[in-house]
Amino acid sequence: MPTVLFLTGAPVSGKSTLARLLVEERPPALLLDIDALRDQLGGWRADPGAAGEHARRLALVLSGEQLRQDADVVVPQFVRRPELIEQFRDLATATGSRFVLVALVSSPEEAAARFRARSGSKDPLHRNAAFLQDSADAKPVEELYADMLSMLAGFPEAIYVESVPGDIEGTLASLREVAR
Q1: What is the pLDDT of residues 1-13, one digit of tens each?
Q2: Domain extents for the chain?
Q3: What is the full DSSP assignment across 12-45?
């Protein structure tokens, strides 16, 4: 049975790195990074909100096709609102797939410290996240983290995995355990 593994967590919690490692272990699993998909849309910086909505719609279409091919989808995505999780959960149900919701957690302070430490990254996704975080109406990372945890309280199926700084292998082992 194919699986949708929705992996959420604060910015810089290791979602993308862990998702990439999991996908390598589950061929032909699809790593569906919605932020990377958004960044592929022309002119996305002019209206990040609209581009994000468009990328989420595309992600659901791609995921549906992947699941119908009996292959897994891993979605590393920070979320503060429940709609996207619900849409992926509904897609899993509609395609006869399993849905697993995992949240990488640490602390608000740790999340903020990791985000600040990544500010000089050469990775385009990291630079684009910094671009969004630098906007005038952006909330502090600590507040984003609290919003995420509050929203996840509405998902009793959510599994929490500690994201240990500097211990990708240990965090990956914990993630493998719950994503089987």
Answers
A1: 999 999 999 877 8
A2: 3-173
A3: TSSHHHHHHHHHHHSTT-EE--HHHHHHTSTTGG
